[in-house]
Design brief:
Family: Belongs to the ABC transporter superfamily.
Keywords: Amino-acid transport, ATP-binding, Nucleotide-binding, Transport
Distance between the termini: 34 Å
Protein name: ABC transporter ATP-binding protein
InterPro entries: AAA+_ATPase, ABC_transporter-like_ATP-bd, ABC_transporter-like_CS, BCAA_Transport_ATP-bd_LivF, P-loop_NTPase
Number of domains: 1
CATH class: Alpha Beta
Oligomer: single chain
Pfam family, one: ABC_tran
Strand order of the largest sheet: 6-7-8-3-9-10
């Protein structure tokens, strides 16, 4: 089989003296949507931040398109084609929607043009001149995802994109993730909402205490529900 787009092996991560990740091992193949599931404090968000080089210290291996990045700075990791959409979204309140979209630089070829993004996110087109402070939580989440699609990033890492959103907006985020997958993007998704995750993902990793303790494909879910209930309380 071809090498995974992203291959993480024995990833260790620290914030100061706090040792958070204890040997994370995950693979994401091109075109997949893969979720990291787990309770609060399991190490899911730290995994994304460690892949992106945003922790105090890390060791192990992070290979993207065959290139080792574990010692790289975060700006080089971004230029390699990995983008992180954080839970707090990072929308600039003083800029309107279009200005927020155009702010990040293109890191490589293959990004979506503005009109294609607006076709994918008609809500954002309607609010193109609205400042970030006037957007709903769902619109901010869509803007945070849309902003990445312009840059040419190949792997999108989304941290809790449905957190705090109404069910109808969660469904809209789900449709968006399925659409960007259909367009050839690859997604690594941190989610606590397992019922949402199973509507968008191909595979799931269960994380506890900074390491993977189980892995389940969507096709295996029916037979794995008892295990997942024990891990996640779903």
């Amino acid at each position: 089989m071809a090498e995974p787009l992203l291959k993480v092996e024995n990833l260790q991560a620290w914030y100061g003296e706090s040792h958070i990740l204890h040997g994370m091992d995950i693979e994401v193949r091109e075109g997949e949507v893969v979720t990291l599931l787990g309770r609060n404090g399991a190490g899911k968000t730290t995994t994304l931040r460690a892949i992106m080089g945003l922790v105090g210290r890390r060791s192990g291996s992070v290979r993207f398109e065959g290139q080792e990045l574990v010692a790289a700075r975060s700006d080089r990791i971004a230029r390699a084609g990995i983008a992180l959409c954080p839970e707090e979204r990072g929308i600039f309140a003083s800029l309107d929607v279009t200005e927020n979209l155009m702010l990040p630089p293109k890191v490589r070829e293959g990004g979506m043009e503005l009109e294609a993004i607006y076709a994918l996110f008609p809500n954002l087109k309607e609010r193109a001149r609205s400042p970030g402070t006037k957007l709903s939580g769902g619109e901010q989440q869509m803007l945070a995802i849309a902003r990445i699609l312009r840059t040419g990033a190949k792997l999108l890492m989304l941290d809790e994109p449905t957190e705090g959103l109404a069910p109808v907006i969660v469904q809209q985020i789900g449709r968006t993730i399925r659409e960007i997958k259909a367009r050839g993007f690859t997604v690594l998704l941190v989610e606590q909402n397992f019922r949402f995750a199973q509507t968008v993902a191909d595979r799931h990793y269960v994380v506890e205490h900074g390491r993977v303790v189980d892995a389940v494909s969507n096709a295996e879910l029916a037979g794995a529900m008892d295990r997942l209930h024990d891990y996640l309380g779903v």
